[in-house]
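User: My collaborator sent over this chain with a note saying "see what the structure looks like." That's all I know about it. Can you take a look?
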Amino acid sequence: MELFVFVVASIMVIGGAIGVIVRPNPVHAALSLILTLFGVAVHFVAQEAHFLAAVQVIVYAGAIVVLFLFVIMLLGVDRAEDLRIDPIPVQRPLAAIVGVGLLATLAAGIVQARSSVRSGTGAGLDVATDSGDHDGNIRQIARDLFSDHVFAFELTSVLLVVAVVGTVLLARRPERHTGATR
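Assistant: Without extra context I'll predict from the sequence alone. Here is the result:
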């Protein structure tokens, strides 16, 4: 059963990531990003990291993708642009160099991870939950967030609401007036 969940969640993540890259419509790309983020949340649930799964869905799939959609609406990036014109001439070679560097970093990380798995260092959730109290960290985060930092938490929520209202107002198209008077 674990293998089936892993395979399905991995297909969600990879399919969504490919959709983000190949979709020409930015709204469809944002929806593919939601699929990717939900797949990552399923991986978190499979690893019994329920708090991280909830944060993944609420913060990333919810708030961040909604922010992306507001930016798409505000900037109107759904219009086609001429991709043959480079605004910055060194942009493409620089992107290729950064891509090769990221692939090299990924390969080095895979080699390092394989060697640490062979040596048996670290045991994942078993080491993290040695105390036997599985929700201790969650309770500690909640206590800290809603007692010591409650003002910052509420201020952030007000800031996000103001940003949403401002984006909606800025994204509205002005009415076109005809020559008739009211």
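A starting point for your reply to your collaborator: The longest helix spans residues 91-119.
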